[in-house]
């Protein structure tokens, strides 16, 4: 199957999940698809763009910069992976949305870098709903204390929550984790901080995006289902 064919299937599955959600809850919201291009090359990205992809997700700043060198602002770039403080400056230059903010220290670094270039950097808070030791992210009950602490930070716009669910053979098993984050999303949405608006709920990957949309995700991050398996031997870095 071609990248265009895969993309069409993913979009169709998202649409079916949206329809199911609408039938069950009455809620009908558009879903943004992030094409996760990490460890895929320029040619594959060209194919995806021709097929209509406009937003790409990357895990590493250097790799994303190499792609930016080629595509410039033709694409919207999202950072999905863990961000080290020594890469913050480049990340703030490049990314339209940073999904992986998981500490106040990182938010402070982003704030400073953004203020310096007169940008307001959109960010999401990464939540480790299942509290897996192998994953980044704050706990569910740390979200509101975080927002209280971050309320004074200039140069950032906190626009939602993100999670990576535990991996299960049966994606149904992810449902309670997505549901918990959706409830937190609603809880935060009802509160008010000047630099925070709950717009995006980023959850769902190749294995579980259908369940995530059914549970309220309005941003899904899909790589393998569009591009096939990643070849980790290929590593694009900036010249
Ligand atoms: C790699 C990655 C994805 C995409 O994963 P697939 O299973 O290939 O769809 C989504 N989100 C994050 C945070 C990732 O690191």
Order of helices and strands: HEHEHEHEHEHEHEHEH
Major sheet characteristics: 8 strands, parallel
Helix content: 40-55%
Shape: globular
Gyration radius, in Å: 17 Å
**Strand segment tally:** 8
Percent range for β-strand residues: 15-25%
- In the predicted model, the low-confidence regions spanning at least 5 consecutive residues are none
Structural class, judged by helices and strands? alpha/beta
- What compounds sit in this structure? pyridoxal-5'-phosphate
Q: What is the number of helical segments per DSSP (H or I, 4+ residues)?
A: 9
Notes on the protein architecture:
The longest helix is centred in the N-terminal third of the chain and has 23 residues, at 3-25. The chain contains nine helices and eight strands. 44% of the residues are buried. An eight-stranded parallel beta sheet has the order 7-6-5-4-3-2-1-8. It is an alpha/beta fold. Bound molecules: pyridoxal-5'-phosphate.
Give the arrangement of secondary structure elements.
Blueprint: H1 3-25, E1 32-36, H2 42-50, E2 55-58, H3 61-71, E3 76-79, H4 88-94, E4 97-101, H5 104-116, E5 121-126, H6 143-150, E6 156-163, H7 175-189, E7 196-203, H8 209-214, E8 219-222, H9 224-227
Parallel strand pairs: 1-2, 1-8, 2-3, 3-4, 4-5, 5-6, 6-7
Bound molecules: pyridoxal-5'-phosphate.
